[in-house]
Specification:
- This is non-specific serine/threonine protein kinase.
- Its EC number is 2.7.11.1.
- In the N-terminal section; belongs to the leguminous lectin family.
- This protein is of the alpha+beta class.
- The chain has a domain of 164 residues: Transferase(Phosphotransferase), domain 1, CATH 1.10.510.10.
- The chain is built from five helices and seven strands, in the order H-H-E-E-E-H-E-E-H-H-E-E.
- A five-stranded antiparallel beta sheet has the order 1-2-3-5-4. Strands 6-7 form a two-stranded antiparallel ribbon.
- Strand 2 and strand 3 form a beta hairpin.
């Protein structure tokens, strides 16, 4: 003879429990002491059951959102830093900056880093992440009809100019419809602000004479002393920058 238990459920979910039993093959079975039987297990609420399903689903969704969000951010970041690079530019690579470095140097070209606006674009102050060097970044929209190769060649040629009274062109970057030129940073800005802006202190005669000497020295170098004759053709107060010691430095434009 086999002795066991069976149970069944209908449309409504139910639970069956065996809390104790007594059986004897010979004679009367021992009586059960109901006071010693364990209490019924706490029934799980439907809400707890739902949570057991919902929580893993939410976790999976959160994981997918994190993965796709990270992938989307990566694509956007790559798109933000994308540049134009062509094979012929390899010979100019030492003079080329990455857009990523210039973007970080200027904190994303924020307005607080804006030094001024010029006819061909805006100029931003920046700190290069690799060297902590301060630079001025001229961000220009270029739709020039001239060949870009010749254009960049002229930029690199200008980068070879070396004189203590010239603002040094450090390099360039190309990106989509933009050209970015990187110059030495001149902390005292342009001379015109000291001559025509009452908010700036007046320059002493010694400072003025020193600035004139510096500009004259730079023009002599460009017009007669460098290996090629370079005509400035745009000497004016706004194109004369002042370094930390108020030395006059000519800014040479390529446009």
């Amino acid at each position: 003879m086999y002795v066991g238990f069976s149970s069944s459920t209908g449309e409504v979910v139910s639970s069956q429990y065996i809390l104790g039993w007594s059986f004897s093959k010979i004679g009367k079975a021992q009586s059960l002491d109901y006071s010693k039987l364990p209490s019924l297990p706490r029934r799980k609420s439907k809400a707890n059951g739902d949570l057991q399903i919902i929580i893993p689903v939410i976790a999976v969704i959160a994981l997918l959102v994190t993965i796709f969000g990270g992938a989307f951010a990566y694509v956007v970041r790559r798109k933000t830093y994308v540049e134009i690079r062509e094979d012929w530019e390899k010979e100019y690579s030492p003079q080329r900056f990455s857009f990523k470095d210039l973007y970080k140097a200027t904190e994303g070209f924020k307005e607080k880093e804006l030094l001024g606006r010029r006819g061909f674009g805006k100029v931003y102050r920046g700190v290069l992440p690799s060297s902590s060097e301060q630079v001025a970044v001229n961000r220009i929209s270029h739709n020039s009809e001239q060949g870009m190769k010749e254009f960049v060649s002229e930029i690199v040629s200008m980068g070879r100019l070396r004189h203590r009274n010239l603002v040094q062109l450090l390099g360039y970057c190309r990106r989509k419809g933009e050209l970015l030129l990187v110059y030495e940073y001149m902390p005292n800005g342009s001379l015109d602000k000291f001559l025509f802006n009452n908010s700036k202190p007046n320059l002493s005669w010694d400072q003025r004479f020193q600035i004139l000497k510096g500009v004259a020295s730079a023009l002599l170098y460009l017009h007669e002393e460098w290996e090629q004759v370079v005509l400035h053709r745009d000497v004016k107060a706004s194109n004369i920058l002042l370094d930390a010691n108020f030395n006059g430095r000519c800014r040479k434009h390529i446009f």
